[in-house]
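Dear colleague,

As promised, here are the two records you asked about, laid out in our usual form so they can be pasted straight into your sheet.

NAME FIELD: protein one
SEQUENCE, THEN STRUCTURE:
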Amino acid sequence: MRHGKKVNHLGRTDSHRKAMMSNMACSLILHKRITTTLAKAKALRTYVEPLITKSKNDTTHSRRTVFSYLKDKESVTILFREIAEKVATRPGGYTRILKLQNRLGDNAEMALIELVDYNATYSTEAPAVEKKSTRRRGGASKAKKSDAPVAAAPVAEEVQAEETAAPEVQEEVKPEAPSTNEENAEKGE
C-alpha cells in the first residue's frame, strides 16, 4: 500500500522518471517556458523549485548538488548566473502553470510551465518605452519662424553623429594615361 506517498509516478519507472524530470528541468531553465501535460508540469514544479532555491546560495556544494539533479553544465551555469539573480528576493513560487487546451491526439490536459520572473505580461514593472524620435516635415502654414532654428538642431546633431560614426575614406586619384593619336583624331584635335 502507498499510504501517504504523494509522488506522481507518471506511469514510468524510477530511473525513467528521474531522467525525464532532469531533461524537462534543463529545458525549462534554458528556454524559460515549456509546454507539457498538466501532470508532468505539476511534477516538474516540485522538482525544479528546490533547485532554484538551492541556486540562491552559490557555493561549490550547492552547484554539485544541483548538477547531480540536472546533469547539464550549461543549464547549471544559467541557473546560478541569470536565474538566481532574478529570484534573489523572491521567497518561493518561482514557476507558474497555465492550463491550455487539451491535446488533439489523446485529449490530454496540456499546460504551459514558465519561470515567473521571465514573463513580461504578468510582471509588475512596466517596461521602459523609449521615445521614438521621428522627423516630421511641417507645411509652411503650420511652421512658425521661431520654430525653424529649433527644428534644425536635431538635424545638425544627426549629421554630426553620421560623420563620427563613418570616417571618411579618401580615394586615390589616378592620373589619366596620355591620349594616343587615334583618340585625338576622334576628338577632332
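NAME FIELD: protein two
SEQUENCE, THEN STRUCTURE:
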Amino acid sequence: MMDLSSPVMDEYEKLVSRMNTPRVVIDNAVCPTSTIVKVDSARKHGILLEAVQVLTDLNLSINKAYICSDGRYFMDVFHVSDHAGNKLADEKVITYLEQSMGTIHHGRSKSFEGLTALELTGTDRVGLLSEVFAVLADLQCSVVDSKVWTHNGRIASLMYLRDFNSGSPIEDPQKINIIEARLRNVLKGDNDIRSAKTSVSLALTHTERRLHQMMFADRDYEREPILKRLSYESPVVTVQNLAARSYSVVNVQCKDRMKLLFDIVCTLTDMEYVVFHATISTDNDEAFLEFYIRHTDGTPISSEPEKHRVILCIQAAIERRTSEGVRLELCTTDRQGLLADVTRTFRENGLNVTRAEISTQGETAYNTFYVTDGVGNPANPKIIEDVRQRIGLSNLRVKELPAMPQDNSERDVQAVGLGGAMSLFSIGSIVKRNLYSRGWIRSCS
C-alpha cells in the first residue's frame, strides 16, 4: 500500500492539481480584430458556463467560438472584443481575465457579502415596481443592487438589500417575515395567488443565472406575451438528432447582442444538458450558433415534446434580456426612497418598466430603466420629457441602445434555409472541419 504521506504521493497530488487547473492562453497577435482566449481543462458539468460567465461579466463580445469537451477534457477557443469592438489592450483586464479563467472551477462571481438577497416572481403590470420599492422604503430597506427582468407577462427580480439605519444585512426573522408577506400581497395583485413568490436569504449566487432559473421555474416559456414586442424578430431555433453519433444538434439564429451565448448555455446547463461541441459565429448583427448536446446521462433528446420544450426554453432565454422600450439612465446622489419616487413618477405617467438594473457605488446611484407605454408601444417622447423634468433633466437621461460592433472581414457568413430557418449543414460543416483539424474526429466528410 502506498504511504499517503510519501513524497511520491505529494508529487501525484501536484500532478492531479495541474491536470485539473484550467490552462489559459490569451493571444492578441493572430487575429487583427479580436483577442483569442484559449482554455483547456479537465471536463466537468457546467464548466463551459463558468468560462462564458467570466467573459460576459467583463462585458466582452464573443464574436466567434469553437468548443469541444469530448472525452475527459474541455477545450475552447473564444474570439472576443471589448464593448467598442476592439481587441483587448488594457493589461489589467488581460491579467484579470487570465486569473479568472484559471479559477473557473471555483465559480467566481460578483460578491454581495454583507447584503440580504431578495427574490421576487409574479405577474407583471404597470406600476408593480413602484409598489415593490414603496414597500421596501417603508420598511427601511435600502436596495444596493438589483436586476429586474420581464417576459411573457411575468416578472423576476433579484435584489440585494441592507438595513437603512444600521447598514447591516437584514437578519431579524420577524422583519424578514414582514417583508415577504407584504411583498407577496403586492405581487399577487387580484389574481395571482398561486404563482406570486418571495424569498429572502443570505445566499450568494450569480445574479443573471439566478434570474434565468427563476424565470424557468416560473415556466415563462409556456406563457403568451401580454404586451406588444417592439420591432422584434423571434429567434429561430431548430433541434435535430444526429443518430450516427448519438448527439442532438441545436441550431440558433437571432440578432447578435451582448451575453447571448451566456443566456443560451445557462439554460442548456440548468436543463441538465451537456454541450460536447459547439461553434458560434456572427455576421453584421446576426448570430449563428450550433450545439451538439446530450443529457448528463449521455443520451440524446428522445421525443418530439422534449425537442419542442428545448426550442421554447432557448427562445425564452434569448428574449428575457431583449431590451424593450426607451432606455433611461439615472445618475444621482443615493437616498432612502429614491427608487420608490422615480418608479412612482413612471407609473403616474403611464410608463411600464420592462427591465431594470440598479447599482450603488458609494453615495451615488447608477440605475437603468427600459420603459414602454402601458400596452407595450413606444413611449410618447413628450411624456418622457415630462418625466425627466420631474426627476431632473441632469439626473435622468435618454440613452440610445449601443450598436453591435461589426466586422465582416473576420466573421463567417452563414447560409439561411427556407422559411428563415438556419441550415443545419452550413454551421455543421464548420464544426466538423474544426474538429477534424484538431484530430478529434476521423473524417470531416
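A couple of things worth noting about protein two: Residues 304-320 form the longest helix (17 residues). The chain has eleven helices and 16 strands.

Best,
R.
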